[in-house]
Amino acid sequence: MKIRSIEAILVDIPTTRVHRLSFGDVREQNYVIVRVHDEDGRVGIGEASTIGGPAWAEESTETIQTIIERYLGPRLLGMDPRPLRAVSQRMGQWVRGNRFAKAAVEMALLDLVARAMHVPAAQLMGGAVHERLELAWTLASGDTARDIDEGEAMLAERRHRIFKLKIGYGKPENDVAHACNIAAHFHGRARVQVDVNQAWDELTAVRCIASLQDAGVALIEQPVPRERLDAMARLAARFDVALMADESLNTPADALEIVRQRAADVLALKLTKAGGPWATLDTAAIAQAAGMPCYGGCMLETTVGTAAYLHTFATLSAVTWGCELFGPRLLKDDLVTEPLQMHDFAIHLHPGPGLTATPC
Ligand code: MUC
Ligand code: MG
User: Fold this and answer.
1) 297 lines ligand 1 (CB under 6 A)
2) Max CA pair span of the chain
3) Spatial CA neighbour of 142 closest among 300, 16, 21, 50
4) For a FRET experiment, which of 36, 37, 68, 205 has its CA 20 to 30 Å from that of 289?
5) Three-class HEC string of 285-306
């Protein structure tokens, strides 16, 4: 089995509504879709999703495409993709950082090899321990009444009973009032958690988390800038409410440092920020050894990326806080003909082969 060619295609898809994060509004999502072809005509598909171009992380779809076309693709040609870990190691030697680019290629290689072997991708990562994962939805319209209506509809349709609120855009007092109102509204019927996306300093975080904890918010995600592990550690020690590291956690080495400093209670895993499925498994192994639970994060992927995240998270017993693999539901369009199974408050593992049954 040999790699014959690699394509990196830019795709923009509008969201079904404005998605407001601490750093601005998102109206469309930008993707790099990677297609790896082998000499026998098989294709594997992967994806890198960015939020707000290089606003969430350093990479944009344009840098990802360049890294793949110029530095990864040409060197992979003619290689046997089956020793997936070894290929990942080689890519790490050719390209430092640029983890989103490497992750998209690794997803495509995983899909390709799993298809060639007629097995679900999860099987190549040790096999699934979860057949379903509880699935969160993000309420991020920026309007309390609209968010409550949206949450009610999700509950009635048995789609979601975990709601993540994106805050950090407005004045901290207003954001806290918004989150507390929603937490009170759904009390006893849904889990409410907030994602601050690094917007607060430590003093603001202390003030706001106290109120959010009292209101019954279950999880506080990345309240302070990603470099401030010292502040994250103090907040984790000070409050009972669970604190989750997202932007502070990229590589397995970051996970080790977070564990060492106890700078979080929960780790948000994402294949792109980690640099691919294998780095995600390594990160989860550190969490597991430290007794630190994980949450299956996302970057608002299409079904292609969502399937790669799902197959990976399904193999991880450390993922006990559910996941937010709802990306396809926020998009006006998708890249596959058959959607993933999302019902009864959960996303369900696709039996394969590969990542999804119906490539674009
Ligand atoms: C993030 O920071 O977690 C994931 C879901 C969502 O609404 O935003 C993203 C990014
Ligand atoms: Mg986050």
Assistant:
1) yes
2) 60
3) 21
4) 205
5) HHHHHHCCCEEECCCCCCHHHH
Catalytic residues: 166, 324
Whole-model pTM above 0.85? Answer: yes
Same fold, 3-118 and 124-348: no
Confirm if 260 and 287 have CB atoms less than 8 A apart: no
Point out the ligand 1 atom lying closest to the alpha carbon of residue 138.
7
Mean pLDDT of 275-280: 98
pLDDT at residue 357 in the model: 64
CATH of domain 3-118: 3.30.390.10
Q: CB of 166 closer than 6 A to ligand 1?
A: yes
Instruction: Examine the pLDDT at 142 and tell me if it is beyond 90.
Output: no
Domain range summary for the chain, segments of one domain joined by +: 3-118, 124-348
**3-class SS shares of the chain: helix, strand, coil, % to 5:** 40, 25, 35
**Does any ligand 1 atom lie closer than 6 A to the CB of residue 197?**
yes
pLDDT tens-digit readout, 242-252: 999 999 999 99
Distance 40 CA to ligand 2 centre (A): 40
Which residue from 16, 49, 162, 299 has its CB within 8 A of the most atoms of ligand 1, so it is best to mutate? 299
- Second CATH level (architecture) for the domain 124-348: Alpha-Beta Barrel (3.20)
Across 354-359, average pLDDT: 76
Closest C-alpha to ligand 1, atom 7: 138
**Which of 219, 236, 311, 312 shows the shortest CA–CA distance to 274?**
312
